[in-house]
Design goal:
The chain is of the alpha+beta class. The chain is built from 3 helices and 10 strands. It has helices spanning 86-98, 150-158, 165-179, and strands at residues 5-14, 18-26, 32-40, 44-51, 56-64, 69-73, 76-78, 100-112, 121-132, 144-149. Strands 4, 5, 6, 7, 8, 9 and 10 form a 7-stranded mixed sheet that branches. The chain has a 3-stranded antiparallel sheet with strand order 1-2-3, with no helix packed on it. Helix 2 crosses helix 3 (165-179). The protein starts with a strand and ends in a 5-residue tail after the last helix.
Length: 184
């Protein structure tokens, strides 16, 4: 397949977390086209679906300004620095937001949630065999912890309560990995 060639990137705006660029590309047939491109300064983050021995999961409900409403999600957060390992980030976020630390961790995928404009990636994990840790929210986090059966979490996807892509991917991956014996 013929490739696009990046000709130049023009920085339009820079904020704490992202930079917005006008991206000029040469198409395979030689034309120059413009795209919007949003670069995540930390590279992304990680999230983890925690599932206990009773097949209940810990989800968090928090306000998200991008959709201007509360969102139900797996515990997740941004990398502390661009080279941070996804597993380290996911474990930190699990304990911070839920007070639990999984002893078994399964990598599901590295998700790009809005591939048309945004380069942010999210490492998605599943954690089982939970041990008590210490919950400690970041100063700007106002989180409600939800303890729901995995089957109810699936219903929350279908009824529109859960719309977050990393959370949807993690829940469906858990169901598949559990039924195929990957997760005991």
């Amino acid at each position: 397949m013929n490739e696009f060639k990046r000709k130049k990137m023009e920085l339009l705006c820079s904020s704490k977390i992202v930079e917005l660029y006008k991206d000029y590309l040469e198409t395979p047939d030689g034309r120059i086209v413009e795209y919007d491109y949003i670069k995540h300064k930390k590279g992304g983050g990680a999230g983890i679906l925690l599932v206990d021995e009773n097949e209940y999961t810990y989800l968090v409900r928090q306000y998200r300004n991008a959709i201007d409403r509360l969102s139900v999600e797996i515990p997740a957060g941004a990398f502390n620095y661009p080279e941070e390992e996804g597993k380290v980030c996911a474990l930190r976020e699990a304990e911070e937001e839920t007070g639990y630390i999984p002893q078994n961790i399964y990598h599901v995928t590295n998700l790009v949630s809005s591939i048309g404009t945004f380069d942010e990636t999210t490492d998605v994990f599943i954690g089982t065999n939970l041990k008590k840790g210490k919950k400690h929210f970041d100063e700007n986090e106002f989180i409600e912890l939800l303890y729901v059966p995995v089957s109810e979490a699936v219903e929350m996807i279908y009824n529109g309560t859960i719309v977050d892509s990393k959370t949807i991917a993690a829940i469906f991956a858990y169901k598949e990995m559990k039924s195929s014996g990957i997760i005991k």
